[in-house]
Amino acid sequence: MKTNAVPSQLGASRETVQPEVFEDRQPFGLSMPIFEISCDFLLLLAGCMVGGALGHLLQLNRTFAVSSRQLLFGSLIYSGLFICLLQGQRAYPRVCSLLHVKETEIVLRISIKALLVCLVVFALGRYPVPRMTALTAWLVGTLALTGGRLWVYDMVRKHFSAASPKRRTLIYGTKRTARRFLTGALHSPKLGIDPVGFVAKEGETSDVIYSNDYFHRDSRPVFREPLSVELLEELQVQEIVVCDPAITDRELAWVKEVAQEANCSLSLVDNQEILTSKAPMRVWEMDGLLVATTILNEPGRRYDMLKRGMDIFCSSLLIFFSAPVWAVLALCIRLESKGPIFFRQTRVGKDGKFFEILKFRSMKVDAPKYAFSPAHHEDPRITRVGRFLRQSSLDEVPQLINVLMGDMSLVGPRPEMPFITEGYGPVESTRLRVPQGITGFWQLSADRRYAIHESIEYDLYYIQNRTLLMDVAILLHTLVYAAKGI
């Protein structure tokens, strides 16, 4: 489908969404979560100290005095416990509720729990605490934290939002769902979303769309030209968010095609395809909106370096210790049938790069080199030695050389032949964004009886959740399966 758009005049609104250069205004160089936690702790500590002092003045029994040291000690214990409980309740989410009501409800609930825990601890430890002092410290501390958090949220938006890295996001749709998404993105700076504007459908008359803020302080322009690769490149868009629940399948397919061609991630908001798509999606909630994002998990350069180091170390070690086995297998292959010991075949690696994969030859020399792999061990193309090699997976051992050379990894999706990858769609092409491997989720599953491309969900799950420890776990499971002869 052609994605080039007909040029149209956007007016002055196009200039309002060009990238801005923000100065680094992060206070003291702190990260956003540390800043929030520190502010909460100081607000709570100050409130407890003031409330405790006030309660000490109001208490009737003057003989039950509380020193400044005791008040500070008790406030520190209570504040520390409170913050720990807040962390346990995930009170510092990436998505803020629209009116911050949910966050306040969590604070009130945690305040009661923290008070009860402290009272029990002090009672068991026979630590005397005046009731009026404890009550006023709890009340003032809770009020200080509840009210002060609103100031903290405003500080986070002003000081952290501009300085933190963001994904330039184009919202597809202009109705109520789109406006709610805009509001949620602007109120949740930790999401790292920078809405650049909206793509309007035919008949839309608005030039700008305001957020659901009471004073309408935030707005974004509405672009009237069709969605296209040129538009995305001109606006430097990194993500498209479809906020039209009534979008047709044909229109959604077109949006996906444009996003794929422009190398943009795609998010669906309150769309039925969230529940049916096989694409690697991270489903999350934004203040009542169900959002599915197709952006992939990118562990970072540290993961890539450690993974490559593990590949080099393990493949070198395995080649060294398995060298006698290689010699025996090579002799058996040569004695049964004439021909090369190794089978070489062009496969498709990461980012579509071709490489030559190595295997111990398990089929007859005159067998077609490029064809679908045999589905059964009784296939007449397979030799007797080859049958043993395939059942024990020993035919894959020479791929350790591919790993050592950097063509493959120990763990990853299995590399396919070019004639298969030529028929890949956007979802299947996801497999080629990571290094191809010797073993993986598909190899450990019962579905390995079928073709790799028929069980794409295993590779998609690995790509979305891969970590170095997951790679190690897959290798350990592979060893267990090999020991069992599975």
Secondary structure elements and pairings:
Blueprint: H1 32-58, H2 68-88, H3 101-124, H4 131-160, E1 167-172, H5 176-187, E2 193-199, E3 208-210, E4 219-223, H6 229-234, E5 239-242, H7 249-261, E6 265-269, E7 282-286, E8 289-293, H8 301-336, E9 342-348, E10 354-360, H9 384-392, H10 399-405, E11 409-411, H11 418-421, E12 437-439, H12 441-444, H13 456-465, H14 468-484
Overview of this protein structure:
The chain has 486 residues and is α/β, with parallel strands linked by helices. The chain folds into 3 domains: 29-160, no CATH class; 166-293, NAD(P)-binding Rossmann-like Domain (Rossmann fold, 3-Layer(aba) Sandwich), CATH 3.40.50; 301-484, no CATH class. Helices cover 45% and strands 12% of the residues. The strands form 3 sheets. An 8-stranded mixed beta sheet has the order 3-4-2-1-5-6-8-7, sandwiched between helices. A hairpin with an 8-residue loop joins strand 3 (208-210) and strand 4. The longest helix has 36 residues, at 301-336. The protein starts with 31 loop residues before the first helix and ends with a helix. 33% of the residues are buried.
